């Protein structure tokens, strides 16, 4: 059996691991608030959300918080994050930590799903930019763009890894 390659020696895997790790508190404390029953949201979470909205003027979080009907798509994305993406954070971290190739397909699906759902968020922010200051727009874009680029990179990277794995296990990619 080959010696295990530490996570810190796999730069992209290390970035993905840190990305998942940092995403867990953001999801639990901010993103999922629109899904929690209002009576169960502790005041410190409401304070955090209100501070974030005041600081960034995020039209998605503020719109969803006040129940804006035109943001039903954003609420659907939050459910997708809770039911699919959040479990992948945990499974992905474990698989990356253990250098498990069996996690590649799930990370490919996660990357494609997340990039696909984050792009409309970025475009919505750009559409609503007249509602925010230049500084707030910069904050918003610097908050959302990494959540698009890292999963997109992950999807492309995992596609190549899966393809390579298929080549090495089959000698060639089988045509369907």
Automatic annotation (TrEMBL):
Q: Which InterPro entries match?
A: EXPERA, Sigma-2_receptor-like, Sigma2_recept
* Chain ranges passing through the membrane: 72-91, 103-125, 137-156
**The protein, known as:** Efficient mitochondria targeting-associated protein 19
Q: What is its main location?
A: endoplasmic reticulum
Membrane topology, as annotated: Multi-pass membrane protein
| GO cellular component terms, semicolon-separated | endoplasmic reticulum membrane
- Alphabetical list of Pfam families matching this protein: EBP
Cell compartments where the protein resides: Endoplasmic reticulum membrane
Lineage in the entry?
A: Eukaryota, Fungi, Dikarya, Basidiomycota, Agaricomycotina
Ranges in a coiled coil: none
Protein keywords: Endoplasmic reticulum, Membrane, Transmembrane, Transmembrane helix
User: Which family does the record claim for this protein?
Assistant: Belongs to the TMEM97/sigma-2 receptor family.
Residues covered by the EXPERA domain: 12-155
PROSITE patterns hit by this protein: EXPERA
Taxonomically, the superkingdom here is: Eukaryota
């Amino acid at each position: 059996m080959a010696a295990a390659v530490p996570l810190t020696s796999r730069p992209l895997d290390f970035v993905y691991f840190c990305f998942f790790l940092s995403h867990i508190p953001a999801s639990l404390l901010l993103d999922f608030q629109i899904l929690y029953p209002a009576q169960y949201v502790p005041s410190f979470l409401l304070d955090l959300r209100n501070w974030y909205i005041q600081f960034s003027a995020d039209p998605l979080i503020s719109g969803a918080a006040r129940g804006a009907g035109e943001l039903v798509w954003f609420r659907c994305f939050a459910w997708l994050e809770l039911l699919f993406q959040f479990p992948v954070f945990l499974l992905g971290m474990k698989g990356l930590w253990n250098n498990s190739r069996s996690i590649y397909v799930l990370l490919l699906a996660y990357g494609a799903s997340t990039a696909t759902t984050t792009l409309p968020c970025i475009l919505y922010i750009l559409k609503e930019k007249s509602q925010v200051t230049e500084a707030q727009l910069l904050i918003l874009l610097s908050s959302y763009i990494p959540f698009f680029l890292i999963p997109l990179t992950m999807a492309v990277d995992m596609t190549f890894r899966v393809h390579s794995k298929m080549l090495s296990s089959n000698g060639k990619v089988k045509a369907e």
